[in-house]
Amino acid sequence: MTTHWWRHAAIYQIYVRSFADGDGDGTGDLAGVRSRLPYLRELGVDALWFNPWYTSPMADGGYDVADYRDVDPLFGTLAEAEELITQAHEHGLRVLIDLVPNHCSDQHVWFRDALAAGPGSPERERFWFVPGKGEAGELPPNDWTSYFGGSAWTRVTEADGSAGPWYLHMFAPEQPDLNWEHPEVRAEFEDVLRFWLDRGVDGFRVDVAHGLAKKPGLPDVGPDPDITDLPYQDCDAVHDIYRSWRKILDSYDGERTFVGEVWLPTPEQSARYLRPDELHSAFNFDFLCCAWDPDALRRVIEETLAGHAPVGAPPTWVLSNHDTIRHVTRYGREDTSFDMGDKRLLDPSDPVLGRRRARAAALLTLSLPGGVYVYQGDELGLPEVQDLPDHLIQDPTYVRSGGTDRGRDGCRVPLPWSASGPSLGFSSETSEASEASGTAPWLPQPSAWSGLSVASQHTDPESFLSLYRSALALRRDRLAGMAESLTWVDAQPGTVCFDREDGFRCLLNASASAVPLPEGARVLLASGPLPDRTVPPDTAVWLSL
Q1: How confident is the model at residue 402 (pLDDT cuts 50, 70, 90)?
Q2: Of 329, 323, 325, 336, which Cα lies nearest the Cα of 296?
Q3: Of the residues 46, 261, 378, 405, which is catalytic?
Q4: What is the pLDDT of residue 1?
Q5: N or C: which end of the chain has fewer CB within 10 A?
Q6: Is 29 designated active site?
Q7: Among residues 64, 207, 384, 395, which one is catalytic?
Q8: Is 75 left (phi over 0), alpha (psi -120 to 50) or beta?
Q9: Looking at residues 39-43, what average pLDDT do you find?
């Protein structure tokens, strides 16, 4: 049975700035990615998702877009992006790129024109410019807070020096929210979609997919808000946007696809974005945030499958990304759950325990029905970097929170490719700039990462990298064409155990004691040693029955 590629794809997330540096300046770029395409092909993934490579002042790592139709010189050129897409396809890898439609940069020509045009101008109608409250408009228009901390409103100082209205930014002040009630905004992004589709991209990851539409009148949240009915997210008008986008994608050959960043309180809310004429899939943040607990893991898997079934959408599974604490570190903590509102960035972690559980989680995740996302460095077992010097932190959440939230830079430290050198092979070892200056990467790598580098793990059959390569190969050969369902098996207490088709079983032991392997079962792959045909604690195994 032939299935759509995106229903079962293993997609590798590339944070360009930290993946590979091709010109030796310490910052990752498209040339670096092109040089590592053979590695990605050998790893065994089906597609690549790129975080934003657009022209940007980098106030929020590229999510403040100044030009949606060009590449920032930090990363390369538009011609290089086109070449990368072509070369990725030649390697059998599809390409998804980030789309950032909720907001743009304050350096975008639209916003600069809006400031210059003044109050009441048509240029300002593309954004949310609103008079303030109070006798002189000195108070924000409502009580909304930014996801990055502080008020979601900034007051404009007009050209003549007078205080003007306020503009909305659900993230940093350098990221003004676009007004999706304005027809020019809708037309602009439909054109941006076509621009990149014409250049061969296979789809888009939609940033803040739940946040584009706002409730009419921009009402206050209030002191005791209903989290399922907030005025700045999951408003009904957003679905019409995605229906129009889906028509555009479906008009192109080659099965192009959308995946949405949809952070919402209930599975029912998220499923509405996945109806057959809207987005194809959405990230499963409930699974990412789940604690290392067998009952909790099983419950999230059950709820995910149940929530997706009515709309016929494939589930997705993800353990880490560029916004969250790497799961190697999370799983080594006493509290293994994750909460975006309270990341507990400095909580202590047992690295040995975290790595063992992360290996087991990889097999659990890759065996589940649907699509899976691998964040760069997951396949190396990289931990969160928790001790970055304060003066090097660039995430705007650090400044916006007054230093109480150290931000997301700890999961964005550049990858180690070799076991030595000033950047552990991140910067091109053959470039004149790198050889002459010994360029260090834009964020420092821990010295211990030498042993976690690609070079150190490449030929080690027991390494994280070998485990991922083996699991991805088995997944593609044996699991990719299976139905998007599973059958639960009541095994030993403290385990998560299920069967797929053709006698395939995944058994995860999350208890404190070893459990026996089923009699007669053949081991396909295990996340660690299996002494005396038992599965030790915090170990997963794939079986053929």
Answers
A1: confident
A2: 336
A3: 261
A4: 43
A5: N
A6: no
A7: 207
A8: alpha
A9: 98
